[in-house]
Backbone:
């Protein structure tokens, strides 16, 4: 019968799983029966003793079987071999069975067998002759020995214990302990006597000694403290900003700092405000169109640097010495370089050493005798001393120098001496125009000056200046002859032709003789024709000098030069005229428009531009003439007819205005604009019946939406509410007559008027229904939604107003007016819901980040006063140019008493959009408090001239039926009053 495998064998008697590893029997509720009891202590001790006897070792001490260890075993029992988990004695309490003993015997046999395998017998090879090659083969060893004589003995490898012992000895020899290294020295100490011990020196701290000596030497040194260190120590406790200003009153200070300095919190806040103001000023100085223009004049920048004052007291001595050394090096390198001598002399002059400067310049003149600049600098430094002598020496070395001769002339005080110097100069340099001009200027008698100029033109016939000066001194008849000679001498000079044209204008023959026509032909023949831009400059120059006819002749003959018919000539002419208007040359602009209208007689834009020029910078008669010519050239242009009628009406010529409109009717039958203009004319003249008749005829002849709306609005202005309502209802009724729709159910203005009429009559439900129907018919009409929301807000139903605005924003996304109205609804609630208003404003600015209206609403109504200016700076960066935002910034400066800044921002807003009436009202309100009477009148006049039509408050006042007959000035004053009331309420 075969032996069962280990897992299928029967467990030994009293077997408990894990007992040998320290486990004991235990009982749980899940067990089927009670656990078996383990062996007793006597059985365990007996089993351990039996096992120890078989192994030849002492039983474990944990069970009382103690055995004294040898000294070597105690040394081997090192802490390095201790159990890392501190399980010492864990297996001591285990139960050893027969199987355990058998396993131990098996392991012991394996260890002994392995130990025997490691032991090898020694292999001894005796003397073998060299001549006998052979191969010795042994188990595990193959050594080919060819022609070798081996007399050595090869030992076999040692056992493992011997090898380990040898390795340990080798390691100890290579890594001796410190005690072993100094063992011989320690043994040598035994021979020392007491005197030897006493004579051993104290080593001391050499490193510390050197360090202390170095520190002592460093402490004895002295250095000059730089000024920067002293200034930094002085300013250590001060608060410095880039903007210096006076300390504000009522400054709040704190002395809680550890260094004892005072912290002025008021100064900190003021400095922050000044920095923000500086940034706003920088934005204000920027160009209104781009916002990025610079205020530095690139042409005059270097000139301004030349005129800058030099303060020698601010220059340190060391800097002057360094520059002096550099200039001396330059002079030594090139002593013939005049600018180096001049720079060295000026350095000495700036340093306050005028004598040294003169000496240096004298040396420079000796080294550079042919340099005009060196002699002129020497003359300047010695002015009042030896200047004349120096000038004489300079002329000796430079006889043909015009500058030196003129400087020598200026040094003389007697006129006769001046003339004498100039005569000598003419003898030496007869071709110098500058000397001849100086000589002519010295002559007090015109006849003597004329004789000098006649002689000068003979010597220098190519000088245009001398010819023109001679012609100016001659009589008109002789001037013509002089100019003819000049034209023959210098055929390429356009100045002579312009002078001839001006002479003809002076005589009165400008309309008879077209000099500029001949001039263009002659210059083209000679190849000396100027560009268009240069001719326009000459025309503007003639206008400045009063030669208006010559200016017009130049434009007439040269404006179309080098332009082809394919070019955009009309746009080019308009740009030229606008550029001249910008420079204040209105006559030149008129000449440009006149030439352009001859080329394009039916161009409506040119006639409108010419009319604007006369309206702004001309007379009424000139404006009427331009408009009359315009309507003759463009009879189908309703704008020109309306402008002419309006100008006649404003001038008080009502009959002429009616005649103009009658002609316009003939040229443009059934034109809506002309019908309404005629109605407005009669309405302003208080001709009610005629206005009604015209409107009735217009509804028959030109039944447009605007005609129906104006008809209802006119009846509403007259107080006929029922008639106006009936007209509105007729206009909103959809009918088809003659296969043509004649009513306007989708007219937002008619729906708005219907609701407003019901509001005026106190019929709130009907008004609400009208607005509701209107928003359904015209969902894109923002004013209609606003009227519906304001009706609910007026009735105190804030929830419904919110609902209306929410639906409006769904129909009109990204609309700043609807978002602003939603914010205002929350602010006007009782109590105001400021937090919700801020949330809505945040959402609004996410949808409309470029809206100046939202930024202004946020700055002025949702932010504390201290945060308005920083937020306004952020708004200016986010929004390029917005007049509403500019007005808000101006109001911020106004509240801070920065009047100049406020006025600047108000004017920027007006320039940006003159059609915004609220801006004019805010500016006038500001000027009433802080402006002059002349400034206020000027603003009112400009507002009337621009006739603004937009603006939140302006439109509400302008379209109120009660204000139908108010003038623009009266509307401006009314808007200003309502703005004051609105500001007090807010």
Residues:
């Amino acid at each position: 019968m075969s032996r069962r495998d280990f897992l299928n064998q029967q467990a030994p008697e009293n077997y408990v799983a894990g007992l040998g590893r320290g486990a004991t029997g235990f009982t749980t509720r899940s067990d089927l029966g009670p656990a078996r009891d383990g062996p007793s202590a006597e059985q365990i001790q007996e089993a351990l003793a039996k096992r120890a006897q078989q192994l030849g070792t002492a039983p474990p001490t944990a069970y009382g079987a103690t055995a004294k260890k040898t000294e070597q075993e105690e040394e081997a029992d090192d802490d390095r071999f201790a159990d890392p988990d501190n399980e010492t004695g864990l297996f001591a309490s285990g139960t050893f069975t027969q199987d355990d003993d058998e396993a131990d015997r098996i392991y012991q046999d394996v260890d002994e067998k392995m130990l025997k395998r490691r032991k090898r017998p020694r292999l001894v090879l005796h003397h073998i002759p060299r001549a006998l090659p052979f191969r010795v083969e042994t188990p595990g060893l193959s050594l080919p020995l060819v022609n070798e004589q081996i007399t050595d003995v090869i030992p076999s490898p040692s056992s493992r214990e011997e090898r380990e012992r040898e390795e340990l000895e080798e390691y100890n020899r290579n890594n001796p302990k410190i005690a072993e290294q100094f063992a011989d020295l320690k043994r040598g100490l035994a021979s020392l006597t007491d005197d030897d011990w006493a004579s051993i020196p104290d080593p001391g701290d050499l490193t510390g000694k050197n360090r202390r000596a170095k520190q002592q030497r460093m402490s004895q040194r002295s250095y000059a403290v730089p000024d920067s260190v002293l200034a930094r120590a002085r300013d250590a406790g001060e608060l410095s900003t880039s903007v210096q200003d006076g300390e504000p009153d009522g400054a709040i200070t704190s002395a809680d700092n550890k260094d004892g300095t005072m912290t002025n919190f008021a100064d900190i806040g003021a400095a922050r405000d000044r920095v923000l103001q500086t940034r706003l000023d920088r934005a204000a100085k920027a160009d209104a169109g781009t916002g990025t223009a610079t205020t530095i004049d690139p042409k005059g920048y270097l000139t301004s640097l030349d005129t800058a004052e030099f303060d020698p007291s601010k220059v340190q001595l060391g800097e002057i010495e360094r520059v002096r050394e550099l200039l001396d090096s330059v002079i030594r390198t090139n002593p013939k370089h005049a600018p180096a001598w001049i720079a060295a002399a000026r350095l000495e002059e700036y340093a306050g050493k005028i004598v040294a400067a003169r000496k240096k310049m004298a040396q420079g003149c000796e080294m550079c005798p042919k340099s005009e600049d060196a002699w002129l600098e020497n003359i300047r430094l010695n002015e009042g001393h030896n200047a004349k002598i120096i000038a004489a020496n300079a002329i000796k070395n430079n006889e043909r120098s015009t500058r030196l001769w003129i400087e020598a002339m200026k040094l003389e005080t007697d006129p006769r001496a001046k003339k004498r110097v100039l005569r000598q100069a003419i003898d030496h340099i007869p071709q110098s125009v500058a000397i001849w001009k100086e000589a002519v200027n010295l002559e007090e008698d015109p006849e003597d000056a004329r004789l000098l100029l006649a002689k000068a033109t003979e010597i220098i016939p190519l000088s245009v200046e001398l010819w023109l000066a001679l012609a100016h001194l001659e009589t008109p008849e002789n001037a013509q002859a002089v100019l003819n000679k000049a034209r023959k001498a210098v055929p390429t000079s356009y100045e002579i032709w312009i002078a001839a044209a001006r002479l003809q204008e002076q005589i009165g023959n400008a309309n008879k003789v077209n000099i500029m026509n001949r001039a263009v032909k002659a210059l083209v023949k000679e190849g000396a024709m100027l560009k268009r831009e240069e001719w326009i400059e000459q025309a503007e120059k003639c206008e400045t000098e009063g030669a208006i006819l010559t200016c017009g002749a130049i434009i007439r003959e040269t404006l179309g030069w080098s332009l082809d018919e394919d070019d955009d000539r009309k746009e080019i002419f308009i740009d030229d005229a606008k550029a001249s208007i910008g420079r204040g040359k209105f006559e030149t602009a008129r000449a440009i428009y006149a030439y352009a209208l001859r080329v394009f007689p039916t161009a409506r834009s040119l006639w409108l531009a010419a009319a604007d020029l006369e309206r702004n910078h001309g007379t009424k008669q000139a404006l009427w003439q331009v408009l009359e010519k315009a309507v003759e050239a463009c009879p189908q242009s309703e704008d020109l007819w309306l402008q002419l009628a309006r100008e006649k009406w404003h001038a008080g010529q009502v009959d002429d205005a009616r005649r103009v409109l009658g002609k316009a009717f003939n040229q443009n039958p059934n034109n809506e604009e002309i019908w309404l203009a005629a109605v407005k004319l009669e309405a302003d003249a208080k001709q009610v019946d005629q206005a009604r008749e015209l409107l009735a005829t217009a509804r028959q002849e030109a039944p447009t939406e605007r005609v129906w709306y104006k008809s209802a609005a006119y009846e509403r202005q007259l107080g006929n509410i029922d008639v106006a309502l009936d007209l509105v209802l007729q206009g909103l009724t959809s009918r088809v007559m003659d296969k043509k729709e004649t009513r306007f159910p989708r007219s937002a203005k008619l729906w708005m008027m219907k609701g407003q009429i019901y509001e005026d009559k106190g019929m709130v439900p009907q008004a609400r229904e009208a607005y509701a129907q209107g928003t359904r018919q015209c969902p894109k009409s923002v004013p209609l939604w606003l009227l519906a929301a304001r009706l609910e807000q007026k009735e105190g139903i804030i929830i419904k107003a919110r609902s209306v605005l929410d639906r409006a924003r769904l129909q009109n996304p990204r609309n700043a007016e609807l978002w602003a109205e939603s914010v205002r609804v929350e602010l006007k609630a009782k109590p105001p819901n400021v937090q919700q208003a801020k949330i809505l404003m945040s959402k609004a600015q996410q949808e409309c980040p470029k809206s100046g209206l939202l930024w202004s609403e946020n700055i002025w109504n949702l932010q504390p006063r201290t945060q308005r200016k920083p937020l306004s700076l952020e708004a200016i960066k986010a929004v390029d140019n917005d007049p509403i935002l500019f007005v808000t910034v101006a109001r911020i400066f106004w509240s801070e008493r920065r009047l100049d800044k406020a006025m600047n921002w108000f004017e920027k807003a007006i320039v940006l959009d003159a059609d915004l009436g609220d801006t004019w009202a805010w500016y006038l309100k500001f000027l009433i408090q802080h402006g002059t009477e002349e400034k206020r009148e000027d603003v009112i006049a400009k507002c009337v001239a621009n006739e603004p039509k937009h603006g939140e408050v302006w439109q509400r006042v302008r379209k109120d039926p009660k204000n139908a007959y108010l003038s623009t000035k009266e509307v401006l004053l009314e808007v200003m009053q309502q703005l004051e009331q609105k500001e007090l309420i807010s």
Observations:
- The first helix runs from residue 41 to 55.
- The first strand starts at residue 134 and ends at 138.
